[in-house]
Amino acid sequence: MIDAARLSKLKAAMGADKIHDLPGERLDAYSYDCWPVTTKWRQQGSVPYRPDAVVMAQSTADVAAVMDWADANGVPVTARGLGSSVVGGPIPIRGGISLDLSKMTAVLRIDHENLLVTAQAGLNAGQLEAHLNEHGYTLNNSPQSLHRSSIGGWVATRETGQFSSRYGGIEELCSGLVAVLPGGRLLDTGTVPRMAVGPDLRQLLIGSEGCFAIVVEVTLRIFRLSPARRFQTLTFDALDGGIAAMRDIMQSGLRPFLLRLYDVEEARHAMVDHSFARPAMFLGTDGSRAMSELEMNECLDICLRHGGARIGERGVLAWMERRFDFSTIERILNTPGGVAETIEVSHSWSGISEIYTALKRRMAPLADEVLGHFSHAYADGVSLYIILLGKAANAAAAEARLHEIWRVAMEAALESGAAISHHHGTGLVRTGYVHRSLGSSALLLDLVKRAIDPKGILNPGKLGFTRKE
């Protein structure tokens, strides 16, 4: 509980209209995000983690004022963008301040010569994409949550999008950051293309989940809209053939912007055909008309060598139209006993089949459907995305099932040597597994946290930082 007298000083400094501390639905709303477990909390009328106050920041100065006050008073601060985290990232598990950045939405500048855009961290990414499209540009970063996530959230979670096999994740696309440290100090990384002046400090904040600083401005690399795109849907005799084709495409130096492989169970959903009986691949190339066609043909040659068969554009084009659709999972979760979850891991090419087999086998008793696809491919490995759909007796039983799904999945990932997260981040659900996943390198993470945030006020309990100050 925050002392009212201390909070009154913050209200005086910022303006009382930006701070909400009366108990009720407004505070309760900040106890949830898009993690399915929080949906079950709502259905049970449970509010296990409530902030003491919500601050609606409208400027970098507002964020600095909060960070100065919170550090001086030892009050936890949990940043929140648009609340689209699916792992409990912005849940304030030790109360304190929920710092809402959703009013910080300005596009500050477009640099036409250097192809950069700078915007405030709370801006809806889909709105930024639409704004850029009007000027002939694109982010070429397209997560399923494009229209419900903020660009600051992208940085916090080390997000990546559906076109990453060509354009990379946020770690490649972010050119610079402005952030506020505990105590209200400002940090600006600058926006040079590359430097050799110590470690890349941008990467210290990308994926830090609001545990080191609050990102307030983001500069992203942008691209001119592609003049041509080519698409193809393929099927494979066996899933291993599709995996081998993905590997050979990436190791041949080809970079299709779209490269996704579905197992049979998920292919039925992706193709909207419940009789579909083969693994399916969605493939897309872009660039000039000549280059996109040449790259597509090279990719197809590799796929055909691994047992692939072309079946036309229709499947992938239909998916492109509905790729932001969450309705299946949301419809299931909206039923009190509904169980739906998504878990993404990554592994080397030599290890990906092992973790896929383990997760499919271990998840089978916990869901009616266990779906899997491979995307975000690299020369040395690929991500695996598992979707679970099922039902339980009621909301409490569904919550218990979701927790068990995560426990089993994380143990399987750790046993196989997979990364426990590829692009959703760790949030609350994975925080207990962070140190085991990082091994000896977790020591460095802890040392950085203690140096930057010695009082532990920033998003406590996340990213493996479970100590209490």
TrEMBL record:
Domain FAD-binding PCMH-type: where? Answer: 47-225
GO terms (BP aspect): lipid biosynthetic process
Which residues are annotated as active site?
385
Cofactor(s) essential for the protein: FAD
* Molecular function as annotated in GO: alkylglycerone-phosphate synthase activity; FAD binding
For the ligand (FAD), the binding residues are: 209-215
- Where does the record place the site Important for enzyme activity? 260
Q: Which InterPro entries match?
A: Alkyl-DHAP_Synthase, FAD-bd_oxidored_4_C, FAD-bd_PCMH, FAD-bd_PCMH-like_sf, FAD-bd_PCMH_sub2, FAD-linked_Oxase-like_C, Oxid_FAD_bind_N, Vanillyl_alc_oxidase_C-sub2
Q: Which UniProt keywords apply?
A: FAD, Flavoprotein
Instruction: Family membership, please give it.
Output: Belongs to the FAD-binding oxidoreductase/transferase type 4 family.
Protein name per UniProt: FAD-binding protein
